[in-house]
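user: can you give me the structure for this one chain? tokens are fine.
assistant: on it. calling the predictor now.
[tool input]
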Amino acid sequence: MKKIYVSKLEELLGTQKVLSSECELLCYSYDSTPLISSQPDVIVRAHNEDDIQKTLELASNEDVPVTTRGSGTGLSGGSVPVKGGIVLVTTAMNRIIDIDAEDLSATVEPGVITSHLHSAVEELDLFYPPDPGSMKISTIGGNVAENSGGLRGLKYGITGDYVMSLETFFIDGSKVRYGTKCVKDVAGYNMTKFLVGTEGTIGVFSKIVLKLVPKPKTKKTFLALYDDILDAARTVSTIISRKVIPSTLELMDQTTINCVEDYSQIGLPRDVAALLLIETDGHPAVVEEEGSVIKTACNANNVRTLNIAGSSQESDELFTARRMALSALARSKPTTILEDITVPRPAIPEMMASIKEVAKRFNITIGTFGHAGDGNLHPTCLTDERDVDEIRRVHEAYEIIFEKAINLGGTISGEHGTGIAKSKYLPAMVGPKAIELMRKIKTCFDPKGRLNPGKIFPV
């Protein structure tokens, strides 16, 4: 039976913005996280700030939970409506409001696709560096909510490093703007930085101002092939220790390489244990100097072959292959569980060895790829959720992997967030006092816990 508040939403917003058929509810019951789903009662497709405000006001009056959603590319269950209620979708709010080439900023709505912003600013010889693997689908609002990273995080940082101002609605429908377009702004608490990465548990973003930088003049792309994955991992530390920060420093193991080659057929060798995809960018003289250091570091760690992309097209093909790693792995088995850990860079060889040992111990297949330059690894298990015993072994394996990452001074998530999938591991990561403090902060903004409930905090 249709809930009364659904009819009220239809009266407030119009029936075209309110979806409630069984098929529609099913489509919004999951995101890109495997093994997690929960149906909402209704979906609201917001077209403007007025729609957001009215929805939140009604939800507040009716005591209904609200889960905000962009494109649903999240990998921690962050947009799954575990308490039902309203899913508030912001993908229709997709305007690039302004690109200020003089002051190096862009003002956008939350539904703007990340790659669309890239293209728009690069036409003006500007650059928005954050580039999550899902950038052709993911939205800026979702990137900000999760504080997404990407391939260029090593040199340029992550989403939060580029957020200058946020207009945010809270659960009662009130709206606040934090931050300015100023490079320096230390008036009051830095609420802008606080809101980034809160995973939709504090507020709903309606307008976002982002910092831009000049587009790099040139770049050089290297493909390094290794017979031993530990040599590849050691190369990462060697490059960083020699005071070179590449724009991209990516790792793929043999399992991932073979899946990507099956999918893309761009000529990646199947008999190597690992590869590094390395790119340096900037002024031509700097690129040449850094390229020389990269070559020396690769050779010092037993690289089998080191190739340099001969054209922009060849470079783009290599990066396209890297970005399709998850999609390629997902074709191998019915269920793909992609995880996300980060460790200090010198600890990468030990972490990689541990992942390999755990996969063998539990008799499971794990392909590992990731942003090795910043220590962010994605051990990805290829499995089948219908095999109950194997799924049990997979979860046991990941518990050991997370524990190892923490013991190495790392974290249980470098870019995917906590969401539902990792909430039970958070206490071991930060301790009970930190959990208590975070709960108190959440309560200040959302006393009844109705905004994206069931996320981050362990139940």
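assistant: here you go. DSSP finds 16 helices and 19 strands in the chain. The first strand starts at residue 18 and ends at 19.
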